Amino acid sequence: MEKGLFYSESGLLNRVIFYSDYNDINIFVEDEKKEYIYENIFERMFNNTIKIEKILPMKGKPGVEKAFQEYGSSYNGKPAIYLVDGDFDLIMEKEMILNNNYIYLEKYNIESYYLDKKAVLMYMAGKLKKTKEEVSIIIKYSEWEKYIYDAMKELFINYMISQEVFPSEKNVGQSPYYYLNKDGTINANALNDYINGLKCRITDYDALYESYKRKFETTLSGDASRLICGKYLLASLSNYLRVTAGVSFKQDDFVYYLASSFEIKTLDYVKERILNVMHTKSEKRVY
To answer: How far from 247 is each of 131, 141, 144, 156, CA to CA, in Å?
Structure first.
């Protein structure tokens, strides 16, 4: 978003009118103020072969849905793509938009893709002035990764229970640091208090827990990387690295580095969907 400007809902919706000429395709996303990150991701995804100079943020999934209702498959003769977070939509069987132009991330959100061991080692090599092999020995990334996914899995299964029973209450929107110690490990007291609080308030808690645990194993194939919000993982990793490696860094700089360096092929399914839409649009134009 342009520095210092804040748009109303209708203002965000109408930005495509002014910015369509800057793009070969118009891409609507949820996240406001993260256009620079999406711009970077799409430049890497298409190796600068497709012009996407203006990303269109909509302040959340409802805003993207509204844009889809307004513009459909194209605007001004150019394909429109709607990219939204996976959230819990699939596992909680929420109503989803089935359209080739409307793409749900296979993981919780875009930040979930930034967790890339190679990218982390490269970043820390620069901070520590050591080789990636030396950094790997110091930070033990794989050990942290296994620990945090196992621990966070329990929190996010309980978040789903909360969303079903208390849909108006904050859950994933809670600051991730509330559940983290300064070294990036889980604050067991905070986690247990949250889970026990749900147990006290929900008479069929055990049945709901077993139900969502089964859905996690079947619908998501037990893949915690698809279940957990990337913001929680990044918060844990940042704290962990600062303590384990004894370094300091700005969170925004670290996250942007990972966003610029994670394995872009993990988003090949998004690339293929977009290319298919563009190809279909091109064929219609020919005929």
So the answer is: 16, 15, 17, 29
